Amino acid sequence: MKSISIILALFVIVSITGCEKDFLERPSLSQISSDNFYQTTADLRLATAALYGGSPWWQWNTQPYMMLGDVMSGNLISQWWGDAVQLNTFSITGQNAIMQQAWTGLYIVVAHCNATINAIKAKAPASISESDKNAAIAEARFIRAVAYYHLVMLWGDVPIIEDNTKLISSPLVNRNTKADVYRFITADLAYASRNLPATDAAGRATTWSAQGMAGKVYLTMAGLSQEGGSRNQTYLDSAKFFAGNVCKNSGRSLFPSYYDLFKTQFNDNPESLFALQWAPGVTYGFGNMLQTYSPSSDITPNNQGAWLFLQPTYDLYKLYSKKDTIRRKASFMLPGDKYPELNAAGGGYTSNSVTLKKHMVGTQTDNNSPNMTLVSSVEHNALLRLADVYLVYAEAILGNNASTADGEALQYFNAVRKRAGVDPATMLNMDTLIQERRKELAYEGHYWFDLVRLSYYDPQKAVSLLNDQQRVTFAYSSGIATPNAPIGSITPATPATFTLQLPSAELTANPKLADAPVPYYH
Predict the structure, then answer these.
(1) In this structure, are residues 54 and 134 in contact, taking their beta carbons and an 8 Å threshold?
(2) Residue 237: inside a domain, yes or no?
(3) What InterPro entries does the annotation carry (predicted)?
(4) CB atoms within 10 A of CB 9
(5) What is the arithmetic mean of pLDDT over 225-232?
(6) Cα 274 to Cα 343: distance, rounded to the nearest angstrom
(7) The domain containing residue 46 runs over which residues?
(8) CB neighbour list of residue 64: distance below 8 Å, 6 or more residues apart
(9) CA dihedral 428, 434, 440, 446 (to 10 degrees)
(10) Per-residue pLDDT tens for 281-340?
(11) DSSP 43
(12) Using H for helix, E for strand and C for coil, what is the string for 214-226?
């Protein structure tokens, strides 16, 4: 892995490859130069379209997305990959490849966004309307905010970079304070909320994407430096405002079927507020590789063998009631589960193991995508869904109360449960909200960040949730689940567990990262 200073300097020019053609046609990278690009509104649309997938997001999506979000949080296990085992047992070293890939990958996204923003400001002529320029910049700032949200939640104090060209002459940078990183994120989201349209082509970010993300960020900020179980009410009110505005005024609604939500024919449905856009037939390093975690070559493109076997934890399995089978079956397979949409031409697929289901979309024939390969799934996996925002809104209403029976909180919370076929709740508290988010958003990379959010203001509760888990695989036969032994000695979690150490390669390349963080705003 290259160091942050080298990676950020290299990505001064935005890559225009690796996104799906029907999202927008893109010129090749060789066609782009400071002289012939960013000259029309169409050029701006092409440039920002490249920020939704392909090479910018590939490193994050391929491994850290689920490994950090779901393995580290206790939802998922990889038994035979040492770096993933470290995440499960909380024995992470500075050389952990998944952690390094997360850092590098997210800063690649930031660099692409910065290059796009600065090129539009410098090169777009007066013939392009200010509203079109602002909308394009807003797309890039929204996506940059999403990347920084992941960075700050994983590492806390991280460098804020706005101009990557400066790293060529001054590659050594300090970390900035966590509070300033959040301030930077909210500034990006505020700009995006004001300048993105209310509607756009399928897959494009809108003001509702930015406002939904703002609700989630403010909910997180409400707990920052608030140990003792109480959250900042001003930030809770902001979370309630933005998430509530999306819930009540966006015109969006939950997709009717949770199970169908993850089928590729329903990519970019109205519930999706921000999804990565992936093309079939692209080479390694540009496509959606989540099907490399498939349990069987019978359900992969061209029957290619998958690379890594992932299994649900016994701890997550226990959360699903008998009525909650729709979400469970859409998230992970048990022996005997039948999936008619996988290998449909061969009569469907019947699972013979306990394994991951979500993101397993089947063969190229199943998806009517002849060019799809094992390393280029056509699933547009959502990083922000409306259901997530519904639950954020309910939690913002709960706020610092021990429980709530507020009508609006229950309305949106129970909309999520109704879609899953689960009985409605009559009262909410933090335990019910955390559990609901864990089941609804399983294997979408969210649960670790939910625990980090909780650790900001109630670290002991967050620690207890981790230490009380059964972070093990399980056998399943005749309707009975039997937990297996741990795959290694699990180090007890502490409040420090919720902040990753810096990758060793980054510290070697940039020793200033070891210094105390400095303010970004003066």
Answers:
(1) no
(2) yes
(3) SusD-like_N (IPR033985), SusD_RagB_dom (IPR012944), TPR-like_helical_dom_sf (IPR011990)
(4) 18
(5) 82
(6) 28
(7) 38-252+266-276+361-400+444-469+487-521
(8) 98, 99, 101, 102, 105
(9) 150
(10) 999 999 999 999 999 999 999 999 888 889 999 999 999 999 999 999 999 999 999 999
(11) H
(12) HHHHHHHHCCCCC
Is residue 158 assigned to a domain? yes
Give the C-alpha separation, 160 to 104, whole Å.
14
Q: For residue 363, what is the DSSP state?
A: -
Question: What confidence tens digit (pLDDT) does each residue in 461-478 have?
Answer: 999 999 999 999 999 999
Q: Quick check: 270 and 45 in contact, CB under 8 A? A: no
User: pLDDT of 135-188, one tens digit each?
Assistant: 999 999 999 999 999 999 999 999 999 999 888 888 899 999 999 999 999 999
Q: Do residues 224 and 182 lie in contact, with contact meaning Cβ atoms separated by under 8 Å? A: yes
Write the single-letter amino acid at 400.
Answer: N
Q: What's the confidence (pLDDT) of residue 380?
A: 98
Asked, for residue 387, whether it belongs to a domain, the answer is: yes
Q: What are the C-alpha distances in Å from 302 to residues 167, 244, 299, 305? A: 43, 45, 9, 9
Q: How many domains does the chain have?
A: 1
Helix ranges (H only) for 90-129 are 97-123
> Is 414 a member of any domain?
no
Contact present, 475 and 354 (Cβ < 8 Å): yes
Domain CATH for 173: 1.25.40.390
d(CA 189, CA 212): 10
